[in-house]
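Response regulatory domain-containing protein, Plantactinospora alkalitolerans. Tokens?
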Amino acid sequence: MSDRQYTVLLYSDDPEVRDRMRLAVGTRPATDLRVEFVDAASYEECIRLVDDYEIDLVLLDGEATPTGGLGIARQIKDDRDDAPPTCLVIARAADRWLAAYAQVDATLVHPLDPVTTGQTVAGLLRARASGASALS
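Tokens:
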């Protein structure tokens, strides 16, 4: 695996949540991966960024309002054959079934653990780079 730079889209209406996501992922979630971030605070902005740029991973806030990360994940998967992997940050582990319905590739639970978050993000980025399906 090369030391390639990946673009991760952070979506939340709350800038503090986006900052916590950014800190949990870090700029090097693994020694062979570098990450740059783009932020979206609204549904429209998130969809525009996915449509217009090469996004390698979308990290979504499941508690965002008025449009939550679940709805955006499902729309991205339904609308695009080449959808980037999606990772949903949820408040309760019990909500994982909703994430599965929305075709989310991975879930993380608030508060974000940097080790788990980094491992999850690295796994999703590696799967995308290899052309493998992120869904297990």
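The first helix runs from residue 15 to 25.
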